[in-house]
């Protein structure tokens, strides 16, 4: 039975038929990538804090088909439809792209928002075939606004699609972490194991040597293997636990963009390496270069990296504010409210 | 007497009082920086090609005060006011910032566009004092749209100002160069002499050695010293001449952002170094990373640079398209046209 998360904890199976305008949030992940889970949590926080007029309703990606049918039955003109943000627009994570196409094509008369994404349709016959399918689906919706979370994706989305394209940071940067003033010890290595990984194990081993003088070292990934499934019912406690863990580290070494964001939120020094198509690199230079306790590198010389790490580990957190960078999304929703006198 | 450039060649001293909507383009430079001159030429090309409903009128920066008075007398609600794009928003080039404040504050009821800029208010008492003055002037105009030409400036503008902020490339990327299929010989070094310069002369000399095996080397700057003054009357021929010169080179080595753009337009291999506050670096990563014959570096090791240059000089031009990246500006003017039924 399809589940609708009106609140985070307990889903219901019937959509409310009150007159309050609805904000439908499709594509919510159940897999155990904490970065992607944090995106969906941040979307809820953003709408509930900034646009409380809306009843916010999350729908798991696995329920996409049934939920489209159910939402169509109650949809009103002032309701907003959205699909989850992240780094999976394109042909590399095709299940998500297929769900996204269905949602974008299903409600062409309603304001439809693609929360901030990175995009990567590969320059291969398969990638270009999938791009054509997405172009055809997105083109059905003149009220669709794509949002890019880095400038490279902004360029690519505008090149690939005729839809409106806005530019904001990743939604997770909307979150503000609190009460994380712990003492710090140890270095945490957070590396991906999927097709996007490009950093060599040899280099990771060299970094471990650089950091190992009596310091505890751990290796992990922000994809959990301790739970089988994460939903809006249990994601918050897992994310808070991860942020607490980060806040006890002296430094994070990673190739995961969301590990860098967690480092930003917790004031933890962090060195980010690239993935296969630059999504972390671009987002770093676009939004985070002024945050002194995190940095990005393409360097592979251990001696140069040693200098960089030794400098980075000494830096402490300062005030920062990326709230205003969400203003193009604020304005889109503000204009929508004015249009429908909400 | 104040000059109004209704066409490029010959200015007039009286504004036309016909019913055609006007597009006033303030802040047009008379100094001899060819990059900044190309910005003002590109603005004219963009409006005349894409929005021919408007009578496009350029006003030299030196005429700002008198022109504001004259424009106020004939201004109609559908007219658009604009200030020139470039890399001088901030306290480093204060004359331009002062003219910009006057224009933004003068016509608060008309759509006002700040063409794509980079921004740099220094983190010094003087820089922050000037920022407050700009904040106060910009705040007078609720119809002012700032446009950032790189993501770092987009973040900074949104942080500093409450005005709307859009995101597009530098206007010069709108230009398409033609008939430049010359044979190539030699390397051209294009380096700035102003306060933004950070690259050491020693390093420039090492690069000359790398490139000197029988190849003619020249050094120049895109700021001309062969003419005293450039206006809309003579800028086009000087820019075309510069583009032709670039198109005859095997490679351009530069720290000038617009020298990289001229290399893009002419299909000339180009290596760009940084300036004092990253304006070229950010714009490169935002818009040009997919253009294979140009690249950016922070490297200062001659051996590593030698490898990079030897690879770069072999690359040839391919098709590229950044036209769609101007879509946020297209849409702003499209909505304006709809509002006034133009």
UniProtKB/TrEMBL annotation, chains A, B:
Q: Which residues form the Polysaccharide pyruvyl transferase domain?
A: 33-277
Name the InterPro entries for this protein.
Polysacch_pyruvyl_Trfase
Top-level taxon: Bacteria
In terms of Pfam families, this protein maps to: PS_pyruv_trans (PF04230)
The protein in question is named Exopolysaccharide biosynthesis protein
Question: Could you read off the lineage of the organism from its UniProt record?
Answer: Bacteria, Bacillati, Bacillota, Bacilli, Lactobacillales
């Amino acid at each position: 039975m399809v589940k609708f998360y009106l609140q985070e904890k307990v889903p219901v199976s019937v959509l409310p038929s009150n007159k309050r305008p609805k904000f439908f949030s499709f594509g919510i992940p159940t897999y155990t990538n904490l970065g992607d889970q944090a995106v969906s949590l941040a979307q809820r926080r953003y709408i509930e804090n900034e646009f409380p007029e809306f009843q916010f309703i999350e729908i798991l990606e696995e329920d996409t088909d049934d939920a489209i049918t159910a939402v169509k039955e109650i949809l009103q003109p002032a309701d907003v439809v959205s699909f989850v943000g992240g780094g999976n627009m394109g042909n590399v994570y095709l299940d998500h792209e297929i769900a996204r196409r269905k949602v974008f094509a299903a409600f062409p008369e309603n304001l439809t928002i693609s929360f901030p994404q990175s995009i990567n349709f590969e320059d291969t016959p398969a990638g270009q075939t999938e791009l054509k399918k997405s172009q055809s689906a997105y083109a059905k919706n003149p009220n669709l606004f794509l949002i890019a979370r880095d400038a490279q994706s902004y360029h690519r989305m505008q090149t690939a699609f005729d839809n409106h394209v806005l530019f904001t940071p990743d939604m997770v940067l909307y979150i503000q972490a609190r009460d994380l003033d712990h003492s710090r010890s140890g270095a945490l290595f957070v590396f991906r194991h999927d097709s996007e990984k490009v950093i060599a194990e040899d280099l990771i081993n060299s970094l471990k040597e650089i950091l190992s003088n009596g310091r505890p070292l751990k290796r992990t990934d922000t994809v959990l293997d301790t739970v089988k499934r994460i939903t809006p019912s249990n994601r918050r406690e897992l994310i808070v636990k991860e942020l607490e863990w980060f806040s006890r580290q002296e430094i994070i070494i990673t190739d995961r963009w969301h590990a860098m964001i967690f480092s930003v939120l917790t004031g933890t020094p962090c060195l980010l390496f690239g993935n296969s198509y630059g999504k972390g690199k671009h987002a770093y230079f676009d939004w985070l270069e002024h945050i002194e306790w995190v940095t990005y590198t393409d360097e592979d010389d251990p001696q140069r990296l040693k200098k960089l790490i030794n400098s980075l580990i000494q830096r402490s957190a300062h005030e920062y504010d990326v709230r205003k960078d969400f203003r193009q999304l604020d304005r889109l929703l503000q204009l929508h409210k004015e249009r429908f006198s909400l």
